[in-house]
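Q: Given only this backbone (198 positions), what sequence would you predict?
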């Protein structure tokens, strides 16, 4: 069984929930969990800089006494790295880029029995359908999770956008009518997460 810990994003806006999220990621894995940090939702030219920044952010959010081992995911070694790790944490970024990379692999099979943490765009990618703040419309995800999601819900995300602030109620209504209308919607506020085991 795989444990999915699906986060809205905006972790820096909610430090208490950030710690709770990382506690959930490493729950029952001891003091030396093996964490694979995956930046597939970011352009490759950002990976070097972001890896250190994100690794430091994870370290500062973990409980005292937990000293994980880390690795940095690369497409050509991703399957082998997944065999090594206890947790794979997929960062947010570009909705289309994360799906491009994940479609190269036999997911969810390759991370069976792992903990899979997601954030914003990577949460969207795993859903059947999602509404994205970046494009302000609904799209199909990879369908790993039979649900719909809106990340950064009811936040200030995009308030500086030339299109104006997001009308979150309209977004949720649009997503409700998109695709499979029987699916539940996770409207996750920043820092919020949901745990699904399947």
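A: Predicted residues:
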């Amino acid at each position: 069984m795989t444990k999915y810990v699906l986060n809205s994003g905006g972790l820096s806006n909610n430090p208490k929930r950030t710690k709770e999220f990382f506690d959930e990621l490493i729950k029952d894995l001891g003091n030396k969990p093996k964490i694979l940090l995956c930046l597939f939702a970011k352009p490759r030219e950002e990976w070097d800089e972001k890896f250190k920044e994100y690794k430091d952010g994870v370290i500062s959010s973990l409980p005292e006494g937990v000293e994980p081992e880390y690795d940095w995911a690369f497409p050509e070694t991703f399957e082998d790295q997944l065999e090594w790790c206890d947790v794979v944490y997929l960062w947010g970024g570009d909705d289309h880029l994360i799906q491009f990379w994940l479609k190269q692999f036999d997911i969810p099979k390759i991370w069976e029995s792992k903990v899979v943490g997601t954030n914003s765009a990577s949460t969207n990618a795993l859903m059947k359908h999602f509404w994205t703040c970046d494009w302000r419309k609904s799209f199909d995800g990879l369908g790993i999770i039979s649900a719909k999601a809106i990340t950064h819900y009811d936040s200030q995300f995009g308030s500086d956008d030339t299109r104006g602030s997001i009308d979150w109620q309209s977004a949720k209504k649009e997503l409700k009518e998109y695709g499979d209308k029987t699916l539940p919607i996770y409207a996750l506020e920043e820092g919020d997460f949901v745990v699904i085991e399947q």
